[in-house]
Automatic annotation (TrEMBL):
This is Adenine deaminase. GO terms for biological process: adenine catabolic process; hypoxanthine salvage; nucleotide metabolic process. The keyword Zinc applies. Keywords: Hydrolase, Metal-binding, Nucleotide metabolism, Zinc. It is an enzyme of class 3 (hydrolase).
Amino acid sequence: MLPTAELHIHIEGTLEPEMLVRLAARNGVKLPTTDIDELRARYRFTDLQAFLDLYYANLPVLRTEQDFYDLTSAYLARAATAGVRRAEIFFDPQAHLRNGVPLEAVFAGLSGALDDADDISADLILCFLRDLGAEAAEETFRAALPFRDRFIGVGLDSAEVGNPPGIFQDVYRMAAAEGLHRVAHAGEEGGPDYVWEALDVLGVERVDHGIRAMEDVELVARLRDDRVALTVCPLSNVALRVVDKLADHVLPAMLDEGLLVCVNSDDPAYFGGYVDDNFAALRGKLGLDEQQLATLAWNSFDACFASAEQKARWQ
Ligand code: ADE
Ligand code: ZN
């Protein structure tokens, strides 16, 4: 198995049905069903919004520091078996705040699990829910500042179309002033204009997804020339019908263009697999050869936010 870094993983998207049922029972949260097969059968989507509706509906089972610790520990253990040596993990504080969970519990559980993982290097990236708007993002950022040492960057996720990156210029400026890394989801369902805005208005260092950048030759040249990494999530794109089938995916074309692309699982509990499953699908269904797969793994370390010395040890 190829050692890799995973740079696009939502911790809330690792909530497997078994964990959902266990946490619901522990916290007295009522679920529509506790049958694992029935729950898993619901993990089928027509688009990003259909997925987000279920993703948010499941989150009230996460209530305590222990819940966040258990969720994160389970991901880290599974990721280690997938060859992940470095993980940069997204989390959605606004989703938990609106469920009445204090930030203290979220940070303590997540960072406690990271501290206890000795076979994987991991850090947190705080994401803003773009559909809640810029003011809510700024308020969340200010509330998170007392925990500044617990996260290394900010990101932007949730419903993309209609919520362009440029709206978040001020909060990204605040994050930059704090010395935080900046990434954003763009070009998943939104067009190339969203990727341009993420680059030019937010100053992002990496683009999450970014597959629709391939529709714009000037943008492809910009991404290549500036060596901006794109965290591509093949099984996610099929599950959310961003592409019809894996064989149609633009990932081989992105590699041919010399883009700094890497492979990630996004929300593995919902999309049919972890990063090793994504690599297996690229090998089996998309026909990528060993050289291409090795390039993807190498790129993931290149694109990660670990120190240069640490990267050199992985590569
Ligand atoms: N939140 C969790 N997964 C997401 C995705 N793939 N796109 C946008 N927001 C998300
Ligand atoms: Zn994502």
